[in-house]
Amino acid sequence: MKKFLSVVALGMAIISCGSKKEEGPKKVRIGVTIYKFDDNFMSTLRDDLKVFAEQNGGVELFLNDSQNQQGIQNDQIDTMISKGVDVLAINLVDPQAGATVVQKAKNANIPIVLFNKDPGFEVLNSYDKAYYVGNNPEESGVFQGETAVKQWMADPSLDKNGDGIIQYAMLKGEPGHPDAEARTLFSIKTINEKGIKTEKLFEDTGMWDAALAKDKVDAWLSSPKGQTIEMILANNDGMALGAIEATKAHNIKLPIYGVDAIQEALLKIENGELAGTVLNDGTNQAKAVLDLSLNLANKKGPIQDTNWKLDKKAVRVPYVGVDKDNLSKFKK
Q1: What residue stretches are annotated with the Periplasmic binding protein domain (predicted)?
Q2: How far apart, in whole angstroms, are the C-alpha atoms of residue 70 and residue 79?
Q3: Is 102 in a helix, a strand, or coil?
């Protein structure tokens, strides 16, 4: 009897061993929040992030739409932490909430990579596992201003009243947003430093949104002063596209400049509806976010075995000015 039981036990052990599946290396679980999915630029960056994750094969993304509400984003972060993600990759709704978000990661001892909205060095420095991927927002304003100057100098007809001064309207992004403030300041500062005077006729927030920007520009153009606008500068392409629709509705042609170089904007440059934009390199930002996230999750240095350079605690992906002269380099 004992011999029979031993044979049965041996048989069960063999069956058990034979049925055990070989498991591959555990995937890195990255918890991602995007401030809102339907933002033109963030939509393309999110798609690039998914492509890079699929190419890597060892990554599982948890993607969340924060619907432009910081409270929703905070809850999403708490949920991802409770699910045991290996690293957080966060596009803040409100840059002022950076300290709160980083503290959540610190309390859970989870590395965090913030991207596209800079929380500032002080916040990043509060946690040894916090880093940022983005760019230098001043550059985007400089490139936008340089492109505007180049075209203004080349085409005297843009000076509609012949006074040598650019009468302009400015569409700003989110109030207080570091990129919005820097782009607004440095675009005009660059134009002035090139020896061209400017006169601000209108300035208002379009909240990065095409529909809202269209409404703002429509109201401007409906006023007597609106007829004297010579140029529209927008903090992003989404608002620039809205401005184009408003000018078309009023049967007015104006040089309009954006930032981001999304494909729709590049098509508008090609057909002459948009004067210029600035490449906000979302593809390389997405690549840097994934590279840093994987390294931190695997307890490596943030830029180990990559080509990225660290500026204090940030990877800065450079901007590039885009107009009809170099459009072919960026149009897919």
Answers
A1: 30-300
A2: 14
A3: helix
